[in-house]
Specification:
about 240 residues, alpha/beta, five-stranded mixed beta barrel, 10 strands, about 30% strand, binds adenine
Length: about 240
């Protein structure tokens, strides 16, 4: 069984998972604490990356280089980009792209990273399936969507900004780390999936909704990630 790297941006997002883990060692690198041990009998390394794409990309690479992880899971909360996706619902990534990447002046599509030949990074189909099943088991009353996660170094909290991002990305939710982790996974040729619970609607009420619903949203992802990890086969797939 290969090790699974689990990344959350904020302490709140990893605290409950940390409690449920049997921690064997804690390694500090790049000002991040990596908790290595087991969760539901599976080998994992859990880490708080810090917020934003640079922190997330760095963190993912350390998980690959130092801990030799076989897959990357990014969990946490996000702002909804679709009317039908409500606070508390879950979005599992079909793929991820950076909404703040823009080299259109050189003829690239908006969001496309120059010279990488890809606009968005597709998540792993097996991991998506496992996340869906885990979610149906952990949170049968919660709506689960599989769709594009869009990432930028920006907390989206204005209707006009949300609508603009949603219009061209066709994203389901917006957050600040997922696509960086997806890109690191792609470059290292390992599978990834992003699992996010909605804490706000990325509009003018986002900064008020966020603190109100943060804990509830996190609780949803924690239950899901725990069950997800238990679905990883003893032997690598
Ligand atoms: N994470 C949670 N809500 C968010 C939002 N509205 N924008 C960016 N990241 C978020």
């Amino acid at each position: 069984m290969g090790r699974t790297g689990i990344i959350g941006a904020m302490e709140e997002e990893i605290a409950l998972l940390k409690e449920k883990m049997d921690i064997e060692v804690v390694v500090k690198k790049a000002s991040m604490e990596f908790y290595q041990g087991t969760l539901n009998g599976r080998e994992v390394v859990l880490v708080r990356s810090g917020i934003g794409k640079v922190n997330a990309g760095l963190c993912a690479q350390i998980l690959v280089d130092v801990f030799n992880v076989s897959r990357l899971i990014n969990t946490g909360i996000a702002g909804s980009l679709k009317a039908e996706i409500d606070i508390g619902d879950i979005v599992i990534s079909s793929d991820a792209l950076q909404h703040d990447m823009d080299a259109r002046s050189f003829g690239y599509a908006r969001g496309e990273i120059p010279r990488m030949g890809t606009l968005s990074f597709p998540a792993d189909q097996t991991l998506i399936g496992m996340a869906k099943e885990a979610c149906e088991e952990a949170n049968p009353d919660i709506h689960v969507f599989v769709g594009r996660v869009v990432t930028g170094d920006q907390f989206v909290a204005e209707r006009s900004v949300k609508e603009e991002i949603a219009s061209w990305t066709e994203g389901y939710c917006t957050e600040m780390e997922g696509a960086a982790i997806a890109q690191a996974a792609y470059l290292n040729r390992i599978p990834f999936v992003i699992i996010r619970a909605i804490s706000d609607k990325a509009d003018d009420s986002a900064s008020m909704d966020y603190p109100t619903f943060e804990q509830q949203a996190i609780a949803h992802t924690v239950k899901l990630v725990e069950r997800f990890i238990a679905r990883i086969p003893e032997k690598d797939f």
